[in-house]
Design a protein that fits this description.
The strands form 3 sheets. This protein has a 7-stranded antiparallel β-sheet, with helices on both faces. A 5-stranded mixed β-sheet has the order 10-9-8-11-12. Strands 13-14-15 form a 3-stranded antiparallel β-sheet. It folds into 2 domains: about 5-160, no CATH class; about 170-190 and about 245-394, no CATH class. The two termini are about 35 Å apart. By secondary structure, it is α+β, with helices and mostly antiparallel strands. It is built from 11 helices and 15 strands. It is about 45% helix and about 20% strand. Helix 5 (about 195-215) runs antiparallel to helix 6 (about 220-230). It has helices spanning about 15-40, 45-60, 65-80, 125-135, 195-215, 220-230, 235-260, 270-275, 280-290, 290-305, 355-365, and strands spanning about 5-10, 90-95, 100-105, 110-115, 115-125, 140-150, 150-160, 170-175, 180-185, 190, 260-265, 310-315, 335-340, 340-345, 350.
Length: about 400
């Protein structure tokens, strides 16, 4: 059975004394990572080798529990493989089943800190985390990371979730991703991108104004601008992430309820292709802010939870082809699509251009030869003349 690792984020409701104990552990863990990193030759990148060389000295120097010292060696080894960290700062500590235990009956957690075990720390579990943590038949908790964000503490719990096998289906839900409509499905469910575009433009202007004031103002005004920039940092990203989570959930709930496969365009490299064209600065800003990749990732990983198969298809001609007669405009450089409207002169079909695109995507998914065992399958439309493009869809 396939296993997917997911993360449930739960806030810890800690008192002042426990918060101090956690801070002390984070300080010591960061100091131990720095000690291990400085003491072991940089050419060693394996956790086992680093642990063998420094474990005893690091444990005596730090006074931490054995598992925390081992986790410090693992973190240093992992970072050495991807980048060179000059200094580790306190902010997070990893835990495993030996240093952490969740009590389901009262929703609390016990953690091993410096020299003691703190029990009965209340967990604030949201709806999504509750689904992941309490579905004990289909999941297994393996580890967690304790993270400090401002004055709050969060436990990022890693859950090994057993993936549901998708049901066999002959029906397909096409999803057209775009900027004007973030997503438009083949059964006319849509999510407008006007609000997020307004938020992006507003935040961009605020950032520019704060940057200008911070570079020219007095010392106190510069300090105030930096405080405002810090407070606004990530606000747009969090809103976009929240929106993409909601859209992906709605699409997959619809597909699960109607027993359909989800068909998406494979838009890899689309941003680079758009930026090759001579567009205005505002258009480049909007295309670079388009978060289609995050939405696709959300749909793909959640599809395993819902037991829905995701199919990726080639995006060429999907916005130009009429779903009703499978024709595109016979003249090169011209299209039946004009903005949000689509009017096919071959069969006289009129309607929303994104709705037409979503139905074409669904048709492409239906014509894909799905090999057994493939998780994502891509199909390609052969490069043909525009007058013959309709034949490539049959």
């Amino acid at each position: 059975m396939e296993i997917q690792t997911l993360t449930a984020i739960c806030k810890l409701d800690v008192d002042t004394k426990t918060a101090t104990d956690i801070d002390n552990l984070m300080l010591m863990f960061a100091a131990t990572c720095n000690y291990v990193n400085a003491s072991v030759n940089p050419r060693y990148t394996g956790a086992t080798k680093i642990q063998k060389l420094i474990y005893k000295d690091a444990k005596e120097k730090s006074g931490m529990q054995a598992n925390h010292v081992i986790q410090a060696c693992i973190r240093v080894a992992g970072n050495r493989k991807v980048n060179r960290v000059k200094e580790y700062k306190p902010g997070s500590v990893p835990f495993d089943a030996r240093t952490m235990a969740i009590r389901w009956h009262n929703k609390t957690v016990s953690l091993t800190l410096l020299g003691k075990r703190v029990k009965g720390i209340p967990l604030v579990i949201n709806k999504y985390a509750n689904y992941l943590l309490l579905d004990r038949e289909n999941q297994e908790i393996t580890s967690a990371v304790l993270v400090r964000s401002g004055k709050a503490y969060y436990l990022h719990i890693q859950v090994d979730h057993f993936v549901l096998q998708p049901n066999a289906s002959s029906q397909y839900l096409g999803v057209d991703l775009g900027r004007r409509d973030i997503a438009y499905t083949s059964d006319d469910q849509s999510w407008s991108g006007k609000e997020i575009e307004t938020v992006r433009v507003k935040h961009s202007k605020v950032r520019a104004e704060l940057q200008q004031k911070a570079s020219k103002g007095t010392r106190s005004s510069r300090r105030r601008c930096r405080q405002l920039q810090k407070r606004l940092a990530g606000k747009e990203h969090r809103y976009q992430k929240w929106l993409n989570h909601n859209i992906s959930n709605a699409i997959l709930l619809n597909a699960k309820r109607t027993n359909r496969y989800v068909v998406l365009e494979d838009l890899e490299g689309i941003r680079e292709r758009l930026n090759e064209k001579p567009n205005k600065r505002e258009q480049r800003f909007l295309s670079n802010s388009w978060s289609f990749y995050q939405l696709k990732q959300f749909i793909c990983y959640k599809a395993k939870i819902y037991g829905v198969l995701v199919i990726l298809v080639d995006p060429r001609y999907t916005s130009q082809t009429c779903h009703n007669c499978l024709h595109i405009h016979p003249e090169k450089g011209k299209s039946y699509r004009s903005g949000k409207n689509f009017h096919c002169k071959h069969c006289n079909w009129k309607g929303d251009a994104d709705a037409n695109g979503a139905r074409v995507i669904a048709l492409l998914g239906e014509n894909v030869n799905r090999p057994c065992g493939s998780e994502f399958i891509s199909c390609q439309i052969p490069v043909v003349s525009s007058s013959r493009a309709s034949e490539s869809l049959h």
